[in-house]
Amino acid sequence: MLRVLHKNLNYRQKFSWNRLWQAYQRGHHSQLNPDTWEPELLWHLPLTDVQALFFLVKN
User: Fold this and answer.
1) What's the pTM?
2) CA gap 46, 16 in Å, rounded
3) Contacts of 52 by beta carbon, 8 Å cutoff, 6+ apart
4) Tell me: the pLDDT tens digits for 12-32?
5) Which of 19, 22, 24, 44 has the fewest CB atoms within 10 Å, counting from its CB?
6) 29: CB partners within 8 A, 6+ apart
């Protein structure tokens, strides 16, 4: 699937395997469970607080 995405990028878009790997690692280490997540309960929080809550903050 990644090869297809890479082939279909617009010529002006920059693709970085390193950035993709970092994003994958952030998602892999996050504590977000889409089956139990209730976003309505977090609407009052700033985005940075929600990211920290689910360990989604960039390193």
Assistant:
1) 0.46
2) 29
3) none
4) 667 777 888 888 888 888 877
5) 44
6) 55
